[in-house]
Amino acid sequence: MADPKGFLTTPRRLPPRRPVDERVRDWDEVPAPGGLLPIISAQADRCMDCGIPFCHEGCPLGNLIPEWNDLVSRDDWLRASERLHATNNFPEFTGRLCPAPCESACVLAINQPAVTIKNVEVAIADRAWESGQVTPKPPDRLSGRTVAVIGSGPAGLAAAQQLTRAGHTVAVYERDDRAGGLLRYGIPEFKMEKRHLDRRLEQMCAEGTKFRTGVDVGTDMDAAELRARYDAVVIAVGARSWRELPVPGRELAGIHQAMEYLPMANRVLEGDYARPPITAEGRHVVIVGGGDTGADCLGTVLRQGAASVTQLDIHPRPGDERTEGEPWPTYPKIYRMSAAHEEARELAAAPEADVDARVFSATTVRFEGTAPDAERPHGGVRALRLIGARADGESGPGTERVLRADLVLLALGFRGPERDGGLLDQLGLELDERGTLARDASFATGADGVFVAGDAGRGQSLIVWAIAEGRSAAAAVDRYLAGSTTLPAPVGPTDLPMTA
């Protein structure tokens, strides 16, 4: 503990963001360049080096947070990077994308603002890359065993890197044309620039991991044949079966799932399109769904130059403080404002703006459309009708409202892995009662040598859980192949976040 009184003398301070009117005109990351390092050592000093650090419990990776906070406060960045990478394969991803349940579990957060753990994490990771501390770590020798990983999201990448470093020959199969899964095509560039992903993939290639992109296992390749070619298979295909909104008018043109819309915006930045096939430019947009994916849509819509935008959340507006039912150290449902919401609020303050960024307690009743024509045989969406929802889920009288909409984006979450495509049937896999892939305590399915990691088995979750599951599944595969393992297994398949 570098400064025993740091948490008493130093207030919580976040790095500055670029001005809204600047950042909505480009796709660069929101934080101001160079704004983090001048403040981060003092912020690390606020860590109390607790005897029982509950931040460890808040993070499923078991990150050694007090240790690398102390090292950063002493300007020992090399050892801080070593501590950070000991538990997290991709801290530059989590430092940008994780909602930081570790901060909600920070002991200081009992009665003060928490340590800025997430910002310290990303500062360590970025500085490690910039100083050349992150290098490939190929195995000393090969085991002679082979593993196929299906899916290249955070769970698949973590499993692949761990298994490659353990000496196994690993090939990652990805149905998209580039590796990264939702990190590549689901996460907007303004939240994480893809250069961070690309350099990690380069590191993994240098370590010996092979990538087979553009291969949809179960469709382009028989999954059973793939299993026969490898000694083990890890399924990390995510939970990409999206939730629907079965209300009248759903068939109208102009209503799209978020994961139809967001990848196209990312592909423009990859150079695949000059202009996305689905764009918000000049259109009146309604986003149905109040979660992170909805916020990603909001930030993307603003950058594409929508004429207006409204985001609907079926839940009531959360309070600003924890409730008695969500005590420390659980991750509370409180009112949070993302960078995209900040952008929408500031743009709404302009006299010429037509932005109503967030509407809470809103239930969509139906969509209204234009008359059918040759181009749109079912007609196109022109409005969304909603009603206010009470806390008990019932509608409130006199709360009906009509929103103009010629583009509607559905961001309602995901149910589990996709059922079509042949992967499940060809391997004889079963679904559990939640609609996710059934597995035992060692991440193994009923098919010999086939394991499941990440959202495909857990359901829709956070990036830290995906990486933790990838690491744990890798340990299970290593044990299956070698009889024992020294790889870490931070979580089990049935572990859950802390709740009251």
From TrEMBL:
* Record Gene3D superfamilies: Alpha-helical ferredoxin, FAD/NAD(P)-binding domain
Q: Does the keyword Oxidoreductase apply?
A: yes
The alphabetized UniProt keywords are: Amino-acid biosynthesis, Glutamate biosynthesis, Oxidoreductase
Give the pathway listed in the UniProt entry for this protein.
Amino-acid biosynthesis
Q: Which residues form the 4Fe-4S ferredoxin-type domain?
A: 38-69
What is this protein identified as? Glutamate synthase subunit beta
